[in-house]
Design brief:
mainly alpha; 2 domains; two-stranded antiparallel sheet; 1% strand; globular
Length: 500
C-alpha cells in the first residue's frame, strides 16, 4: 500500500480492499475486536471517522457529497482497525516498508525529471504537470516525508549513507522544480528535526547548537531575501506622486488610471497607455488578435500591457517597437513578465506569490491566484463557522455552505473558483463546530505526547510535522491520497508494532 501512494490512486484503493479481504479471511473477530477496543490509540484514530458519521446525522442539503466524503475517508476507520488487530510488524519489516516507500517516491520523481528534461510542453509551462500520478501538492508531502525517512536510514546504515544522501539531493532538487514552497519548508523542518534528534540523543550538544545557529541564519537570510524582493518590486513611489507626460511621442493622449496600482517589476501597469497605438503596433507584430486571448487564455491586451510594464516601457507604439521577436512570442504564450518568460523556477514562484499578495491588498481580483484566493476561502470558512459555532454544518453540508456563502456575499471570485477552505483546521472547525474540533485536536495531539519512546518516535514526529504543517494551506484529509497518507503511516507507527 505504501508503494501505491505516489504512483496510483487505483492501486491505493485496490490495496485497501485487499487488506480488508485478507483481514476478513483471517477470522478471529472476537479476539480482534477485543484487541481493538482495548487499544486506546487505535480507538482515538478511528474515532475521527465516527466524528464524520455523527456529522452526517445533522447534514441536510447534499447527500451525494456526504456519501462521497464518507467513502473517501474510510481509511480513517479501516486502517486503524486492520493494523491494530493484525500481526505485529517487526523492525526488519518497518525497514522494508520505508525503503519501498522511498523507492516508489523515487519512481514518481524520476518520471517528473524525464518530463522536465524531455521538454514536455505542459510541464514546461505548468510546474504542476511534473507530478504525473497524483497532485503536485500530495507529491510534495510524500517527497518531504521521504527525505526525512532517508535521513533516518542514512544514520542507521552508514555503509549506504552516500546512496541515501544522493536520493535526498535528488528529491530536494525536484521540489524546487515543482516550486512547492510548502514542500520545501516541510523538508527543511524535517531535516533539522532529524539532525537535532540524533545529535541530542547522542549527546552532541555542541553540534546541536551549531545546527540551530545555521538554521537561524538560513531563516534570517531567507526573510531578508523575500523582504528585499518585496521592497524592490512592490514598495514603490505612490502612484499619485508620479509626474506623467500627457501625450505619447506619436501624439496620442495617454490613459493614466491613478486608481489601479498593479505593478510589474516596480513599474505601474495602467499608466502611460495609448490604446490605439498599442492595438495598431501589435497588429503589425503578431497574427494574434489584440482583442482576443493569448495562448494561456488571458486577454492579450492585458498580457501585452503587463509585459511592457515589466520592461519599464511605455504602453504605446514606441514601447511595442522596442520589443524583440522573442518578446512577442513570449507575450503570445501568455507571459506577463520578461524576467521569468520561458522559465519555471522557485524565484519565479516567490515573485508570483508576492505579486498575488500585493494584487489582493490593492483590491485586485484574487480569482485564479492560488495564494490570494486562500484569503477569500479562509474568510468564507470563518463566516460559516460563526453561523454554526457549536456543532458546525455537518459532514455533508461543507460544500453546500461554501456555495451558499459565495452566492450571498459580495465575493470577487468566478463560480469556478468557489472552493473550500484549503485549511484543514478551519475545515474541521466549520464542519463539526467547537465540540468536534476539540475532539479532533485530542485525536491529533494525544499520540504525540503519549507515544512510547521507541525508535519509531522520530518517524512519527516527522509524520506529525508533515501533516500538521500541510493542514495550514491545504485540506489534506479531504482527498483520497491525503487521508491515506495520514491514516496509513499514523496506524503503522502508532500501533503496528505494539498491540498493547
Amino acid at each position: 500500500m505504501v508503494v501505491s501512494l505516489p504512483l496510483s490512486k487505483f492501486l491505493l484503493s485496490l490495496s485497501l480492499i485487499v487488506l480488508l479481504i485478507n483481514w476478513l479471511i483471517e477470522g478471529g473477530f472476537k479476539t480482534k475486536f477485543r484487541s481493538f477496543f482495548s487499544n486506546r490509540l487505535a480507538l482515538l484514530a478511528s474515532s475521527l471517522y465516527v466524528l464524520h458519521l455523527i456529522g452526517a446525522i445533522y447534514s441536510q442539503h447534499n447527500f451525494g457529497f456526504l456519501m462521497k466524503d464518507l467513502r473517501v475517508k474510510l481509511p480513517m476507520l479501516l486502517l486503524p482497525l486492520i493494523i491494530s488487530t493484525s500481526v505485529s510488524i517487526s523492525r526488519a519489516t518497518y525497514l522494508v516498508l520505508a525503503k519501498a516507500f522511498i523507492g516508489s517516491v523515487f519512481i514518481a520523481v524520476f518520471v517528473g525529471y524525464l518530463k522536465y528534461i524531455s521538454g514536455y510542453d505542459e510541464a514546461a509551462t505548468d510546474f504542476r504537470k511534473l507530478a504525473t500520478f497524483t497532485s503536485h501538492i500530495r507529491l510534495a508531502l510524500l517527497i518531504a516525508f521521504g527525505v526525512g525517512l532517508s535521513l533516518i536510514l542514512a544514520y542507521l546504515n552508514r555503509k549506504l549513507i552516500w546512496l541515501y544522501l544522493s536520493i535526498i539531493v535528488f528529491f530536494i532538487v525536484f521540489l524546487f522544480l515543482l516550486q512547492s514552497i510548502t514542500g520545501i519548508v516541510i523538508t527543511a523542518i524535517l531535516g533539522v528535526t532529524v539532525v537535532l534528534y540524533y545529535t541530542f540523543t547522542q549527546s552532541f550538544k555542541l553540534l546541536s547548537l551549531g545546527i540551530v545557529f545555521l538554521a537561524f541564519c538560513f531563516i534570517s537570510l531567507t526573510g531578508i531575501f523575500i523582504y528585499s524582493k518585496w521592497n524592490k518590486n512592490f514598495n514603490i513611489t505612490e502612484i499619485h506622486e508620479l509626474i506623467l507626460p500627457e501625450y505619447s511621442s506619436y501624439g496620442e493622449k495617454y490613459y493614466n488610471d491613478m486608481n489601479r496600482e498593479e505593478v510589474e517589476n516596480g513599474n505601474y501597469v495602467w499608466v502611460q497607455v495609448a490604446w490605439n497605438e498599442l492595438e495598431e503596433a501589435w497588429s503589425k507584430r503578431s497574427p494574434l488578435s489584440y482583442k482576443g486571448v493569448d495562448q494561456a487564455g488571458q486577454p492579450l491586451w492585458s498580457t501585452l500591457a503587463r509585459y511592457l510594464a515589466s520592461k519599464g516601457f511605455t504602453k504605446d507604439k514606441e514601447g511595442v517597437k522596442l520589443l524583440t521577436d522573442t518578446d512577442i512570442r513570449f507575450i503570445e504564450k501568455g507571459e506577463t513578465n520578461y524576467r521569468f518568460a520561458g522559465i519555471q523556477n522557485i524565484n519565479k514562484r516567490i515573485y508570483k506569490i508576492l505579486w498575488e499578495i500585493h494584487h489582493f491588498t490593492i483590491g485586485g481580483n484574487p480569482g485564479g491566484n492560488s495564494i490570494a484566493q486562500r484569503f477569500v476561502f479562509w474568510n468564507a470558512a470563518a463566516n460559516i463557522f460563526y453561523e454554526n459555532p457549536i456543532i458546525g454544518v455537518g459532514t455533508g453540508d461543507t460544500k453546500y455552505s461554501f456555495n451558499t456563502f459565495y452566492s450571498k456575499s459580495e465575493n470577487p471570485l468566478n463560480t469556478k473558483y468557489w472552493l473550500r477552505a484549503h485549511n484543514q483546521y478551519l475545515t474541521f472547525l466549520l464542519t463539526f463546530g467547537l465540540l468536534g474540533f476539540a475532539w479532533f485536536l485530542v485525536c491529533f495531539l494525544y499520540p504525540l505526547f503519549y507515544f512510547p519512546k521507541t525508535t519509531l518516535f522520530l518517524p512519527y514526529l516527522l509524520l506529525f510535522a508533515t501533516i500538521s504543517i500541510s493542514f495550514l494551506t491545504e485540506d489534506t484529509l479531504e482527498t483520497q491520497v491525503g487521508v491515506t497518507i495520514y491514516s496509513l503511516f499514523n496506524s503503522l507507527l502508532l500501533f503496528g508494532s505494539n498491540k498493547n
